[in-house]
Amino acid sequence: MPLSFVKMQGAGNDFVVLDARAGALNLSPAAIRHIADRRRGVGCDQLIIIEPDGAGADAFMRILNADGSESGACGNATRCVAALLAEESGAREVSIRTISGLLHAEILGPGLVEVDMGTPLLEWGDIPLSGPADTLHLPLALGPATDPAGCSMGNPHATFFIDDFTHLPIELIGPKLETHRLFPERANIGFAHVENRGRIRLRVWERGAGLTLACGSGACAALVNAHRRGLTGRQAVVAMDGGELLITWAENGHVLMRGPAETAFTGELPDLA
To answer: What whole-number distance in Å separates Cα of residue 208 and Cα of residue 196?
Structure first.
């Protein structure tokens, strides 16, 4: 039977959203890769499956990367799913569970959503790293990228602070850094230029997806790591290729992410299971 989907995007980070609350989909990794393929399928950075949650949240969100692997967190997708669930229920506040924990979202206006991404994990074993290391100065360098800071926002992140992007070969060094032995679960690799204490320019090589137009959890990690380095305050606009997010590391330790969530189109997929 054909399978309905919603194509959504948040700051250019795009998703194919499937609803499995009425029954499991059991898509194979090959089917996921086919759907995510921008030439042969619909095309997306991540495939998102909305599932029922038996522990009190409005829904469970499963995040599948374009290569078929599973991810623990995706801030832009969380905003998109929150917008869908809120449109269904008419509620302004939505709770969404992922394999990394429970997230709370608030609808601030048409196409504008804020998500509480929880508290960043800063210890080496929580990111995780393959061994003890100073997470404010990871022992990692490749070409012009040196001395990153690390944290987890539900998935592993390393943030390199750079002067400019002009001669930075992200497509070449991103895959090597993502799969470096320091990261047993691979990592999202951020390249951040701090323009001032309230604005960061960011590009992210996402594990399992490559160079994307935006990465919500990467934006959160960039602000957290920049503040830990003394480069910004606790709030900054993070500008990415696809748009801007407002990130706040609140005094209670939680990271808030505010940004757009938009539906591009809807359609139907053939049975690819």
So the answer is: 31
Q: Which residues contact 91 (CB under 8 A, 6 or more apart)?
A: 58, 85, 107
Q: What is the pTM of this model?
A: 0.94
Q: What is the mean pLDDT of each run of 10 residues along the chain (273 residues)?
A: 92 97 91 95 97 95 96 94 96 96 96 97 98 98 96 97 93 98 98 98 96 97 98 98 98 98 95 64
Task: In whole angstroms, give the CA distance from residue 190 to residue 161.
Answer: 8
Give Dmax (Cα) for the chain. 54
Q: By the 8 A CB rule, do 18 and 49 touch?
A: yes
Mapped onto helix, strand or coil, the DSSP state of residue 19 is strand
Domains belonging to the chain, first-starting first, are 3-116+260-269 (3.10.310.10), 141-253 (3.10.310.10)
Residues of 33-54 as b/e, b for ≥16 C-beta within 10 angstroms? bbbbeeeebbebbbbbbbbebe
Tell me how far CA of residue 180 lies from CA of 71, 146, 183, 189, in angstroms. Answer: 18, 14, 6, 11
Q: Which residues are catalytic?
A: 74, 215
Q: What Å distances lie between residue 112 and 67, 73, 79, 84, CA to CA?
A: 29, 19, 8, 12
